[in-house]
Automatic annotation (TrEMBL):
Binding-site positions, ATP: 107-113
Reaction catalysis annotation: UDP-N-acetyl-alpha-D-muramoyl-L-alanine + D-glutamate + ATP = UDP-N-acetyl-alpha-D-muramoyl-L-alanyl-D-glutamate + ADP + phosphate + H(+)
Species annotation: Dictyobacter formicarum
GN (gene name): murD
Domain of life where this protein originates: Bacteria
Entry protein name: UDP-N-acetylmuramoylalanine--D-glutamate ligase
Domain Mur ligase C-terminal, chain residue ranges per copy: 298-416
Family: Belongs to the MurCDEF family.
Coarse class of the protein's main subcellular location: cytoplasm
Protein function: Cell wall formation. Catalyzes the addition of glutamate to the nucleotide precursor UDP-N-acetylmuramoyl-L-alanine (UMA).
Compartment list: Cytoplasm
Length: 441
């Protein structure tokens, strides 16, 4: 249920067919949109029902593998359960079959950067290492043939993926949790429900398993006290990392990095602590950190042109992500933001926009309708001038306006702070379009 374009649905369909199952794939997106995914599965005995979901398919199925974006409350999932079907997710099938040691990383912000850096450090150490999970374009189940008991498998895990582990009471052998902030509250009943989904990353660990938590975030600090395995905390405020129930802090040594922002130092501290606990030498870790420039779509520097730095932060789908992006730069900012709402609190984002941005271009959407009055209120509160220069329904026109406003020494920051659906397929599509536009200038 849910073929998608990013790999998870394709991997599930391929894996099920290879195991000898009779497979139907159903997705509400049109056959035209899903053509690349269908093509990737050519030659396998798979039936596709696209552009709709049919009750008959969910009555027919013995196992439904749901895509991470499909909520438990879906009437089709309920129908399948009423007819005796097992509800599974790709990541649970993977963990049940994986012979390697799994290092799982989750959190609201920073999980992709932290997972990618852990992967790069482990690879640099010479250990056989693979990366998967919530990584665009990676079919995690398709990694299984390459994995031996000696393989280290780094998995970025979303809250939705982690829900799939709960019925099996399984967690990765190594769990890393970056932070918890309000997110996805349009699909969860509240913060407790959302955070509890994340907590599956450590809930079912064994006493000799390893868990690492960010002490500076209230949610992850609390979870660190509840973890059943060997637990470590990291803290920029305390200047390093420390085992639970000890006062001795191992100092943070790996601060030489090309990445901008305090939040990236948090990510580096988590990743390097995990690597040290996995036995990697400090020399290997330091060199990997110095070489690591971050990941696409997350404060990614696309180019510098005429003295303007163009930054692609299209993975910013929540207000707190938009706020963190603004705090990463000291230069004057021309901001392109806006999109559709997930009904999350705006936090200090409007305040930071008025403080930090000389010019703001907004993309039309339900989130933008929430943001604009909050910016206007902050303009009034701060006695500042209004930085908003227009709301656009065409992203090319929006980017053209932003480019016109940018001056030498500026940062042109594409950090939407909301989801993308409507104007773009997803946050990766909008990031790719931004990069293509900037490279063509």
């Amino acid at each position: 249920m849910g073929l998608g374009l990013q790999g998870s649905g394709m991997a599930s369909a391929r894996y099920a067919a290879q195991q000898g199952a009779i497979v139907r794939v159903t997705d509400m997106k049109s056959p035209e949109v899903l053509a690349p995914s269908v093509q990737a599965l050519a030659g396998l005995p798979i039936e596709f029902i696209l552009g709709e979901h049919r009750d008959e398919d969910f009555r027919w199925a013995e196992i439904v593998i749901r895509n991470p974006g499909v909520p438990w409350t879906s009437p089709y999932i309920r129908l399948a359960q009423e007819h005796g079907a097992r509800i599974e997710m790709e990541i649970a099938l993977f963990l049940l079959a994986c012979p390697g040691r799994v290092i799982g990383i989750t959190g609201t912000r920073g999980k992709t950067t932290t997972a990618s850096l852990i992967y790069e450090i482990l690879r640099a150490s010479g250990a056989p290492t693979l990366i998967g999970g919530n990584v665009a374009g990676v079919e995690t189940l398709s990694l299984l043939p390459q994995i031996t008991p000696e393989t280290l498998v780094v998995l970025e895990l979303s809250s939705w993926q982690l829900e799939g582990l709960a019925p099996h009471k399984i967690s990765p052998a190594v769990a890393v949790m970056t932070n918890i902030y309000p997110d996805h509250l349009n699909t969860y009943t509240g913060m407790e429900d959302y955070a509890e989904a994340k907590a599956n990353i450590f809930r079912h660990q064994k006493p000799d398993d390893l868990a690492i938590f960010n002490y500076d975030n209230p949610w992850t600090r609390r979870f660190g006290e509840e973890a059943p395995g060997q637990t470590w905390f990291t803290s920029l405020e305390k200047g390093g990392s420390f085992a639970r129930h000890t006062a001795q802090v191992e100092p943070f040594r790996f601060t030489e990095t090309p990445m901008a922002g305090r939040h990236n130092l948090e990510n580096i501290l988590l990743a390097t602590t995990a690597a040290r606990l996995l036995g990697v030498s400090d020399d290997v870790i330091a060199e990997a950190v110095r070489r690591f420039h971050g990941v696409p779509y997350r404060l990614e520097e696309v180019r510098e042109l005429n003295g303007v730095r163009y930054i692609n932060d299209s993975a910013s789908t929540s207000p707190v992500a938009g706020q963190v992006a603004l705090e990463a730069f000291d230069a004057p900012i021309v901001l392109v933001a806006g999109g559709n709402t997930k009904h999350l609190p705006l936090e200090q984002w409007p305040e930071r926009i008025v403080q930090r941005c000389r010019d703001v271009i907004l993309l039309a959407g339900s989130g933008t309708t929430e943001l604009l009055p909050a910016i206007q209120q902050e303009v009034h509160n701060q006695g500042a001038s209004d930085p908003v220069r227009g709301i656009f329904t065409d992203y090319q026109q929006a980017l053209a306006a932003a480019v016109q406003l940018a001056r030498p020494g500026d940062v042109l920051l594409f950090s939407p702070g909301f989801t993308s659906f409507g104007m773009f397929l997803n946050e990766f599509d909008r990031g790719d379009k931004f990069v293509a536009y900037v490279r063509a200038l």
